[in-house]
Design brief:
Layout lengths: L2 E6 L2 E7 L4 E5 L6 E2 L10 E6 L2 E6 L6 E3 L2 E3 L1 E3 L5 E4 L2 E6 L15 H4 L18 E2 L10 H6 L3 E7 L7 E5 L3 E6 L3 E8 L2 E8 L5 E2 L2 E2 L5 E3 L3 E5 L2 E9 L1
Parallel strand pairs: 3-4
Antiparallel strand pairs: 1-2, 1-11, 3-5, 5-6, 6-9, 7-8, 7-10, 10-11, 12-14, 13-14, 13-22, 15-16, 16-17, 17-20, 18-19, 18-21, 21-22
């Protein structure tokens, strides 16, 4: 199980196991990790953990949240990351984190794309092994009604690079795509359809040549998505 080592100016103050789906950090005593310091906002940040993966999000704090010395809004935590709240620090420890074992080789599709299937109540992704299949051609269909039907699922097919032609079926509640530390996005399956949301990185994902911004962006049949330099076509097909 992953944990956080709590310290102040290098002095050990305790540790917190990440044994809940969501934990909050802040000055209010109701937080899971209580830091009684004026530099820390009432509810400063949240950490969402699913399986071996943990995601840190700044909750609009006054003084911001740093990871390894850099200000973040959303961040996929990796083993030994150092989270800072003023002079207080939380070190993320997770030797078994799946995402930290991913290499950076562009030749290996599994290493360049995080794909982790999850249950419907999960807040962030878990993995699926992509299968190469032949491209599916079909008549365009509205994204929202189609996604709501059990027999219709979203898919993405890689359009460039060594993995061109490989396909991923988006049949889980959330699927994470990208490269930790570079650019990460989440595609969510909702009753209204499929949506893409930026999670990590200085630039936002691009859909049909346009940045999606910080908010959830709906995906339509045959949209072209670009994440971390990889272009993919989103389409709807029979499961």
């Amino acid at each position: 199980m992953a944990k956080l080592i709590f310290s102040l100016d290098g002095a050990f103050l305790g540790e917190f196991p990440l044994d809940k789906d969501r934990m909050t950090v802040g000055r209010r005593s109701t937080n899971d990790i209580h830091i009684d310091n004026l530099a820390v906002s009432g509810e400063h940040a949240a950490i969402v953990t699913i399986g071996n993966d943990s995601f840190l999000e700044d909750l609009g704090s006054t003084n911001g949240t740093l990871v390894n010395g850099k200000a973040i809004k959303k961040h996929v935590l990796q083993h030994a990351d150092l989270i800072e709240f003023g002079k207080y620090q939380l070190k993320y420890i997770n030797d078994k984190a799946i995402s930290t074992g991913m290499g950076s080789s562009p030749e290996d599709f599994e290493k360049t794309m995080i794909i982790r299937p999850m249950s419907a109540k999960a807040a962030v992704p878990v993995a699926d092994t992509p299968k190469p299949v032949q491209p599916v051609t079909q008549s365009p269909a509205p994204a929202q009604p189609a996604a709501a039907e059990s027999s219709i699922v979203g898919r993405v097919q890689v359009l460039n690079g060594p993995s061109m032609g490989k396909e991923l079926v988006l049949n889980k509640a959330l699927t994470t795509l990208g490269k930790p530390g570079v650019q990460v996005a989440v595609i969510t399956k909702r009753p209204q359809g499929y949506f893409i949301t930026h999670v990590e990185g200085q630039t936002h994902p691009v859909v049909n040549g346009n940045s999606v911004g910080a908010q959830a962006h709906p995906l339509n049949d045959h949209d072209v998505v670009e994440i971390a330099g990889v272009k993919m076509e989103f389409y709807l097909g029979a499961s």
